Amino acid sequence: MLNILSWIVLGLVSGAIAKAIYPGTQGGGFITTTVLGIIGAFLGGSLYSFLTTGALQLAGAGFSIPGFIIAIIGALIAIFLWGLVARRA
């Protein structure tokens, strides 16, 4: 249970920072930002794991400064992809 709460906090922080960095306006509120941040943390962690080990595995970013940077980059990618999906709908 504590691990899930930690991922929600990491997702909230990384999603909020990514939303502030991302140019333009994005739709969605608190819930969307949190979900995109959590997805971004896993996306960034998995992408980092793939680039460093060559193995594709589901991994979240760690709780460190590099982990937060990876989570923010993943959240930026998630916001970009969400923008593509939301425009088509």
TrEMBL record:
Domain of life: Bacteria
Localization: Cell membrane
Primary location class: membrane
Keyword Transcription regulation: no
UniProt entry keywords in alphabetical sequence: Cell membrane, Membrane, Transmembrane, Transmembrane helix
Any one GO cellular component localisation term in the record: plasma membrane
UniProt feature coiled coil, ranges: none
Membrane topology summary: Multi-pass membrane protein
Keyword Transmembrane helix: yes
Transmembrane segments: 28-51, 63-85
Family in the record: Belongs to the UPF0410 family.
PANTHER family: UPF0410 PROTEIN YMGE
Protein name: GlsB/YeaQ/YmgE family stress response membrane protein
Organism encoding this protein: Drouetiella hepatica Uher 2000/2452
